[in-house]
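Note to self: keep these together.
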Amino acid sequence: MRIAASRNGEKTRELLLSLELLDRAIRAVRSSGLIKDHDRVVNEVVSMIASIGRGQARSVRSSVTAMISDLAECLGTVPQRVAGMSRNARKPASESDIRFIVGLSKPEWNKTIVRLRAAKNLLSTPLAARIAEADDRPIDLQVATRLAATADARTEQHEVLPPEYDRSEERMRLSEVSVSGFRGSAGRVTLSIGDAGESSDVLLWGDNGMGKSTLIDGLEFALQGRVDRSADFNSTLRPSVRNLSSADVAASVKLSDGSSVHRSLVKNAAGRDEPSTGPVRPGFRIAPLVIRRADILRFLDTESLSRGTVFFDYFPDPNGSLGMRPDEELRSLEEEQHVLRLVRDNGAQQLEKLFPDEKSDLRNATALNNFVDRMQRPSAFGPSRLSAEAARVVAEVSKAQQRLSSIKKKLDAGIQKLNPIAYREQLNRVVPILQSATGDLTTSFKKVTNAEHVKAIKVLVARSGPVSLDVLVEFDDGSLALPQQVFSEGYKDLVALLFFLTVAKRAAALGQARVLVLDDALQSVDATIRLGLMEHVLDEFHDWQLIITGHDRAWLEQVRALFQRKGRRFVERHVHRWSYNNGIQVSGPPSNRAESLSNAMSGTDGRLTTAAAGLLLEEVTQQVSWRIGSSVTRRQGDRYTLGDLWPSIAKHLKKTQLATTIEAITSRIDLRNQLGAHYNDWADGIAGTDVISFAEKVMTLYSATHCSTCADWVRRSGNAISCPCGEKVLVLTS
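Structure:
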């Protein structure tokens, strides 16, 4: 087409076709890196310059010849026509002609020729020689940079539609969980998950070892037939689900639609424990319900090449059973292997006793088969010398050997982290869902930490391997790193927990019930960001039912206040006692100090009333003093008594409408020591009216400084002292 345009004198068309040919030649050399494709580029430039010079003045044609001569030096193989034009060059091209022909200055044209000549020299060098020349350069081992480059190179992704799950129970909630003969509970124990007949959030608190996890495990067992994301109930390396003093193991959950789910632990034909049959409800089969500290550690401790398998029990086949992680399957096989070896060895010992003259090792499958063949040969004693008992033992040992051989093959294969075929179906479901987590993970991390230097937390799935999951941190200066290279333990825990939370939201979008249990998971995160993380959870999961467990009472007060500020309906449950015989005892929240004082005032014991009033007064002074900016003389360790704090706080609050109350408390504050804190026989003569009056004034002070609406204390703001929601306001008079 170009030649035809040239012959017809269609100069503009000839140039346009030349540009197209040049573009194609450039693409070819970029993809191949071959000298022949490089020559094609140079030849197209030669043709374009020749076409421009055609019909021009002699001086311009002379410059064209000189420029083509320059280009001839850049060719690996010089065509005859180019060689002919080059021979006619008499003098260098002028600057004005170069600008007219190619739009470059003379230095720019010379620089272009130098680059083209260098490219010719490189591409003319055999590949082996080029590799040898570069061999002394170190390999770039920056993993994060390499991963990012791999991700950028695979930007083209085919849209994969998510699975179609049953969405009929996505609004389901929990009302009650009961366990019996389950872990730490020999008898039946019930946890009510509701308030005034309606499902609500739950704050489940108690000291470690009191049985919180028994209740959470029972919930997971009833709804999903597993505990800690495992369906192996026979391992000697895990806590036993079956209570040692109870024959029956069961758990049940009442749901918000009035139905119940019941599951028990039964013995199968092989004598192994397994969950009773029964389908997993649609709202609880897409993802695990519980996020534990163990999940965070599992995520962090699994190498990136196989980390994607941590989520293989998420997003199962919509028409199949619950998913299982390969590591969980291998652990179950290892436990079975251990038991089968005991069966095999025990059976071989029994055969040795029955046949003391047998010298072969009957634990070996070949030796056992040879033994059976010998025993079944006809003899003077009959067609077979194996008794019924011996035949039974042989059959048992043989079955154990066959199963051990099958298990060994699977264990030898291990997690096939470099096999793209092994987990193809599950990968097709999991990979696109996990890959979509980058945006939410970045937003969540920056919201919780306020880390301005972090630009993004990137998630790369199936990039470094078929089941890999890599997390990259991109900083605002463009640098990249792995979290374990740059983050503290607390930040690494945070990234892992946020990842699980993000995936839980993906499961809910596909039909999983919006119920989430955080079993002591938050307390692994640094205290400096823990409260911000909890607030983030309440914001992001505002329409979910949350069950939060913990053991730290100070943390409970923070969580309780946060739930109240967010207006969440919740109940507080405490596991306050456990014993081997009686199991777990669950109760409502313990009385706070104001309730304790109120209860004491309803009785007749002045000592209890004064002691309770003194404790509440200490709490008020500790909480309010720093919030209103009262001064205090510093002590080592910053531990202050009522005597240290009260004078300054009284001075501040006397300037508000609490002046009369403050004066009354100051005048009888000695009651706290005389009657409520120390033994004084003469203090029994203190009038009961004085005790009640002191207690009432302390209650007035508490009510004025602590807000029941936002569950927070008053603090100074300009000319007023008020709580965050504005319900409690103390006006400063001067």
